[in-house]
Amino acid sequence: MEQRLPDFVLAGLYKNSLVITGDAISPANTLAKDSTSPVAQPLPAAPAVPPKQWYLGNNGKHIAIIVNDAGAVYLNDESLQFLSSILSACKLNLGDVAIINRHQEPVLFSFLKSHLQPVVLLAFDVNLQQLQLPFTIPHYQVQLYDQCQFLSAPSLQTMLGESKEAKLEKTKLWLSLKKIFQL
Questions:
Q1: pLDDT (tens digit per residue) in 29-43
Q2: Which of 30, 58, 113, 131 has the most other CB atoms within 10 Å of its CB?
Q3: Which helix (H) or strand (E) is 97 found in, with range?
Q4: Measured distance CA(132)–CA(110) in Å, rounded
Q5: Is residue 18 a contact partner of residue 40, using CB atoms and an 8 Å limit?
Q6: What are the structural domain ranges in the chain?
Q7: Residue 46, by phi and psi: left (phi above 0), alpha (psi -120 to 50) or beta?
Q8: 22 vs 139 pLDDT, higher one
Q9: Is the CATH number 3.40.50.2300 carried by domain 63-181?
Q10: 145-164: per-residue pLDDT in tens?
């Protein structure tokens, strides 16, 4: 049994659209062509809704940075400040990268490849298999795959502070970044 929506529901769904098909025009539903008849004016186009910004940065050098931060849209302030200092040491800035919080935007590598064309992908606290990549690598090992260099590392939070463990993690990260960016 075919169900039909009531006319008022259809009118509400298409309130900003006007479509006239050739078979719908007949003498009974056309307006007289005199000066007292109202003239149908085209409706203004609905403003385009800008797409939601799903990453932080401008992706100027096609470097994707994937993080996993449950408490922030992109990255908490302390980690962002630390990441900015790392980027600065690599002669980069936020305009060169795209920071994606996988906790907020669970993207896959195929999506990233088609939308951001990364040549470098840094994954902090993200298992590469979560991105549907066919491999895993130990932390701080640089891996080339599909014209992209990959680096997996623990959370940026583990590198904050001046503890012996944090300094060791920062050193390992720096050695890997030097390879990637030829510093």
A1: 444 444 454 555 555
A2: 131
A3: strand 97-101
A4: 8
A5: yes
A6: 63-181
A7: beta
A8: 139
A9: no
A10: 999 999 999 999 999 999 99
